[in-house]
């Protein structure tokens, strides 16, 4: 019963929040006139023949075969959700045979880019939203999903499509979404005299000092994987300058040269300089840091909410862990409910697919099912409106749902929001901030200069 | 070096010089002991990774990351192996890797033998230049050509086959194979060609019936170096092969790690599966390999 | 008449010879054909494409724009690309490879070449790290370097030298060294085996003759064996240098090019450009530079050895 309430709150929250879309001209398409679009994607000049062919086969309803690539490898937490969803799809659509292959995350990026440049994409492919998909869309390689998504408008809130909307057209089916959570080991907090995760920034700092006095390291962060540093840094910046300002910067609508951001970076650096971070972290991978956190070495661990499933699966650790939102640093500009994250995992359809229209319908339905099963498994929060009995979802994921239900706005992870070249420049500066090679001023000035 | 004729080596391959003069036996016993201690310590250092890999494959993430990094596993998790074999499908990838590597080595050896014959045993004007041209291959990094080759193969609809990997692999091992072949082939006395010609053999018959049989000792040397280049290759295998039916071991092993979480035990098990057979073959063949090394001694 | 017939015979012989030459030429061509097909198709053609693409600003899938040599210029002028850093690191690696790894390999090869007991077993064992996947080697060294439970820091604690403890792969001062040590160690066996073959190939008579002249073993090695196996040492040096320029695997596993991109090598930069930053044109530029450098070093080393011989 409690779950139902959370879900409805989540929905209500989702309706009012302002998810910002990628690209400058990417205001969510509010007019519901898909017929006027005649399914013509920006890509249609590139592959008009493919489109007509696709329409033909789709109407005939003949048995077809679709290929799909994704990153749900054997040990990925989403694997089970994909398997269940595909099983259900096979039962619902016996005329469609799906051949799917899973690849390791990092090597998949290489693979899909090479495939796009050689026009060798599978019919349906996994992609990250915003800039990653945006490059492919700009090159005219992705099939427009406006028609296919039209019939799901009641189940898939328009705000969830913001990250995959380019020039007002939809190109992706979101599956799960994730935010950055502040995970805490309550046993360690208790040792420092805290029963709850502190709600204000001053209390939070006091808590870190108390932990430090007890010889407990407050934060664990993997310096070898810079995206882990951004999980901390972006939260600090957002809670200092506010979600809208950060969003404008990430999406290129405002300059990096913003003194407030510089001050926020200095705030983050003071956390580092105060010794709140594990000094060993600079040489560790995320796997190692996460293992340390679960072994009780750190009091806090800021990372994506995809970790919920793993924490829940560890029987010894699960009772100790709680999740919360990072406290507000500057109440004039930021407030609670401004979160880092959003729907990023996406399915897209290749414009070159001979059965693009059928693949588009299939991808939408599959995305919905993956979302459903992924949520039940605790792999992330649903981008689609949840249905069925969701009471089996683990407590941590439910807690995250509650945080999201009160969400005011989201800022997508910086390295996903920016295009590939800028994202890497950004990451290299974040790396230098964590290592105290540059201060806040140098950070904002450097980025303002180097981002093309 | 080694210009003394090849035949003798074949008769007496173990190279037992009986000269006590040039052995360690006569040296001062202290030096001798120090030498052996040094050799043994160095051997232990080089054996350690194998021990590490084996114990690693039987541990849980908790032990691997901190609790027990180099000791014997507290709980011997043989299940890591079954999960690598079953869910990770390592058996299939292993077979694929063998097919690809063996074919690539075979093509590389054959092409290299033919080319080396033309380069070293037939006199023609541009042979030196052609040889240096082929030696360029030693300096080309694999990463540099991945996208052009991929575009080429995809235009030719030549992806997702065993030959998709076999052909590039044999091309990339070719220069090394020719280099080693040259070392062996110049050691074969040129009189043999002469007498063959007098007997009325053409170039082709000379090559197939006289030179090829004498090149046998070269095969294991070329084989091991070509193997080193093919067996662990990841980049091409990842990009060129999209269906798991033709996937090779390195890509399969990588696919065991998840996007955000990784269970390292089965990865260790997969690495053992990928490495131990080759170690066994190496130990089994090492005498032969070393012999062929001694017989052929690579020359530039 | 007789003259005529001689002329005719001569002509026939000439024709015969020409026919044979053409036949030989065709044979040579056919002998080389498989190798050339593979070589040109898979290695040379992509280089030509890379040279062409290096003059474009291109992300790999959209339309590119021709920008001439701007990529080459940017490679050296843009501070955030770190090409010079990567080159410096590769050269440092090459330096240690040539002046630490190869002498050690040579030392082992000479030692084993002296017919020590169980020399074959030692030889096999020393070669084993080459056969083991870099993933295993990398994971092992990460365990050695781990700041908390790593063997190195524990050892330093144990011998009361705790002040020398470091976050080995995470600090600017130690990160590059942390890469160099395992890279060098892994391939000692590779070079040793090459050199051992040469050492064993030196005829026993030569050694004996030198010994009879009163030379010690080290003198024999120095003045008899090493000069003879020089061609092998040259090959080893070329492999060591070009291998260092191409080094990739262990850098990826141990430091990911960090901290602060101070341990990038050309190959990691190349991969970043191609597949992380979507700058395919710039990636091609780096690969062209890499090929040119490898080739130039190979030529320079060959020349250096020639000069020494003369």
Total helical elements of chain B: 14
Query: Which H/E pattern describes the elements of chain B?
Result: HHHHHHHHHHHHHH
CATH hierarchy class name of chain B? Mainly Alpha
Low-confidence stretches of chain B: 1-25
Number of domains of chain B: 1
Number of separate strands of chain B: 0
CATH H-level name of the largest domain in chain A... which superfamily? Periplasmic binding protein-like II
Number of strands of chain A: 15
- Under CATH, the homologous superfamily of chain B reads MetI-like
How would you describe this structure to a colleague?
The complex is a heterotrimer of chains A (452), B (300) and C (310). Chain A is an alpha/beta fold and 452 residues long. Chain A is 46% helix and 15% strand. In chain A, strands 1, 8, 9, 10, 11, 12, 14 and 15 form an 8-stranded mixed beta sheet that branches. A 5-stranded mixed beta sheet of chain A has the order 3-2-4-13-7. In chain A, strands 5-6 form a two-stranded antiparallel ribbon. In chain A, helix 1 runs parallel beside helix 16, helix 10 (226-241) crosses helix 11 and helix 12 (259-273) crosses helix 19. The radius of gyration of chain B is 24 Å and the shape is globular. The longest helix of chain B has 33 residues, at 264-296. With 300 residues, chain B is mostly helical. Chain B has one domain (6-296): Orthogonal Bundle (MetI-like fold). Chain C has helices at 2-53, 70-77, 83-112, 119-131, 134-145, 151-158, 172-201, 204-212, 217-228, 230-246, 249-254, 266-276, 280-309; strands spanning 56-57, 65-66. In chain C, strand 1 and strand 2 form a beta hairpin. Chain C contains 13 helices and 2 strands, in the order H-E-E-H-H-H-H-H-H-H-H-H-H-H-H. With 310 residues, chain C is mostly helical. The A-C interface holds A 109-110, 113-114, 116-117, 135-136, 138-139, 141, 223-226, 279-285, 288, 292, 297, 419-421, 424-425, 428, 431-432, 435, 437, 450 and C 59-62, 80, 142, 145-148, 167-172, 255-256, 258-261, 271-272, 274-280.
